[in-house]
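Board notes, transcribed. Complex of a protein with nicotinamide-adenine-dinucleotide.
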Amino acid sequence: MATLLITGAAGRIGTALRPRLTAAGHHLVLLDTRRPDPPVGDRERFVEGDVNDRAALSAALAGVDTVVHLAGIPTEDEWDTLVAANVTGTKNLFEAAASAGVGRVVQASSIHAVGRVPEDDAAPGSVPGDRLPRPDLYYGFTKAAMELLGGLFADRYDMSVVSARIGAFGERPSSRRALLMWSSPDDLARLVQATVGLREPGHHVVWAVSRNTGSPADLSAGEAIGYHPVDDASAVLGADERAALPDEDVRFLGGGMADLPLGRRSN
Ligand SMILES: NC(=O)c1ccc[n+]([C@@H]2O[C@H](COP(=O)([O-])OP(=O)(O)OC[C@H]3O[C@@H](n4cnc5c(N)ncnc54)[C@H](O)[C@@H]3O)[C@@H](O)[C@H]2O)c1
């Protein structure tokens, strides 16, 4: 049992992780600029604040063992907006964690850190979790920069840092792309549990996707730190549901988003 700080806890992934992590016996501190829904329950405390607000971070980090860093802009946007939230926010989070003596961080990177890898170079099981970044968007660039910050702080402060390349998150797979790159809520909770168990300092860039049949993701970097995903998108959906899924551009690992205009808010 540990005390975890979840930044961006009011978002989609944070909301899905909360019941799974409290059910595993953990205490949670929820940090977000907006109030979580559902409201805080047993073993949870909420700190309203921004990751760029040092006072809020220091209040949130009291008594914390491990940080689950999800706060940020989850899609393409203007450069300055993305860099302030995703890069500067992450730098401030790591600085605050280091000065509070918190030794473990798992942070949300993205498939878009490698989104411009051509599909022709992405045979099943062939893309390592720590493949050299090849971003498809300014968003993906900020995720690659977050990974570099993870390495810097792991080296300088002997922290255990996991940069988790999340694919297509959802309760259920919702596109053909997600059949290959789905990140199920239960598997993301398993990755948090693996991070809580890390005892050695170091930085690990891993695929935070499920065990999807035919996926290009090579899961071995995650398995080396105890992340053993269980779910398979193709097994979750029936044949009719799979056939009815919307098609997506598959020329690049980042799917349809890999061709969006740079620097323009995408939704
Ligand atoms: N959803 C996906 O499929 C997916 C895929 C890959 C990576 N990710 C990454 O996972 C993380 C969470 O994604 P999500 O889908 O839950 O996004 P979301 O937008 O639903 O949640 C993000 C949360 O962060 C909060 N936030 C934003 N800026 C903040 C700041 N400066 N300080 C404090 N809180 C702030 C928002 O209020 C929001 O509640 C993001 O970093 C995203 O880039 C998500």
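The radius of gyration is 17 Å. The pocket of nicotinamide-adenine-dinucleotide is lined by residues 7-8, 10-14, 32-34, 50-52, 70-72, 74, 85, 89, 108, 110, 166, 168-169 (CB under 6 Å).
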